[in-house]
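hey m, so remember when u said the tokens were messed up on ur end? i reran from scratch. heres the input so u can diff it against urs
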Amino acid sequence: QALVQSSGENDMDWTFCGLWLHDLGSPQLDVNISPGCSNVSVSANRTTLSIHGQVTAQCRRFNGIQLDHYGLGHEKASNFCLYWEPALDRLILQVKQQNFSLCRSAHPEGSCCTDLSRSSIGPEVVHGIKKAMIRTDVISLETFSGYTFKGERVPCSEEHFCSFTVKTMSNERLCEYEEPTITVHLPPALKLAMRTTTKVAVTFHTNTTFFQVTFSTKILGEVVDITVENEIIADLSEPIRISFYHDAIQVWRSHRAWSRDCFTVDPVHVKWLAEGCVTSQRGVEHTECFCNHLTYFSVLVELQPRPVRHLMALTVITSLGCAASFISCVALIVFLCTKSRQSKEQSVPIHLGLALSLAVLHLLFFLTGVLANLGGEALCAWVGAGMHYSLLSSFTWMGIEIFHTFWLVYVVFTPSPKPYIWNLLGFGLPLIPVIILVAVGDVYGLREVFSADDLSNPYQMCWMKDSTKALLAHYVTNITSVFLLVSSGIVMLILVYRKIRIRDEWKQTQVAFLSIWGLSCLFGTFWGLTFFEFMSDLVLFFSCFLTSFQGFFIALRFYMLEWMRKRAASTLCSNSTGSTRQHMLQEKS
């Protein structure tokens, strides 16, 4: 097994770990270490763990240690690790939590024995070394009697080791070292797959700007290129192991999350693929890739939908709200059509346009799950486009409500634009982005929403797809529209409040609250809660409730305004009738 590190040519440290299977009783340690640079062997049987070899520069050690004196031997298995630091001539054995200093620190001169590589392995046994590893890389999961490693001599000067950025295992250091960002382990199967004896080239690309990624994907760290001269290597019986050490990814509590996977480059189509590699996440800062071919490798971070908590409850709230809002909007449309024949109020066509767009939006949202299961991808492409259009149309009409309110309050003596202007903006303007997205393609279709409680049974709906194009379209159209709508709505609420707060009726708390609530429904300021849904489940439920029942709240606002108008007219009529009767009595008298 060959080891290639991106940060140096020689190993500053070497670690061999395993699980020693032995009998209960009195296990012992057999040490036979002498200067040289040939082999070091680690073997075990039912009673003894042996460490023999010539790898040190000065240290000599010949003795046995009874491990039961250190509280060991009460179990039939013991984890152990052997640490070797050639630059310090230090050899340390750790059995469970007990450390044994086999060779103490020194500063050897001349040469050191490093770059230990496996040369042979003992037979498979019942009592021996199981789950052997070099650093964090598993050699074998089976139980063998022992392992032998061969070393190489290198200059032992401080400058030689300090010229590489590698990590030592002890607290005592010759110089400051950094942990390697990438390690590549080439298996013996690679040599068998090569037709001729040639070199394996491993290139590390720190500049990744030339490797194209999608909008929702980024390269985490460096890109590794592993090639064999004039050969194509694929379908290896034993995978290549590449360890990437990187910064931790910050994951926010939102409806989207980062996934971390190993990818390779398709040399024909020049794109990243996940085929041929298996990802093992060893920690938040360590990702290991097992790949069966040679090409470019890297770890890609991809933005993916996060499973939704309380999906069933949110779905029920949305369905009830959309049903109530649709019925309310239909009733409101009938009321406004009747009112438009009786009066010439400039705001009636605007209210009618908002009610119509919200009615279509709530109806499609109510039916989206049923249509997705019945019609599939083909029908969902049209339903998703219709939902997006009705959503943008509703946002546009809410913006027109804001502008018209500003016109009535601050531009008093100038007539409002004609109704056809509002209809052209409210129904025509949202068509432009929807038509463009339909022409681009791969935006509208079937969408699956996964529940955190049951990932195997996703909720299907017709909406924007979970693709790069759809994500970009969502941010450009929906998120931008909501931000502009909420910002202008809040500003308009403040302006209206400052303008008419001096009126006598606004001095009543109930009237002021109902007026602000009604205007908030018209202006769509409740949609601003969608930016804060990641904060808590309470905000998520509150946002879902208000946006789903928006049509109902708007109809309720008009009902209350009509009731208050009739009540005020009735009061005025009663006062007028009473004054007339009093005047007639005075004349008769």
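this time it looks ok to me. Residues 2-178 form one domain. if urs says something different then somethings off w ur setup not the seq
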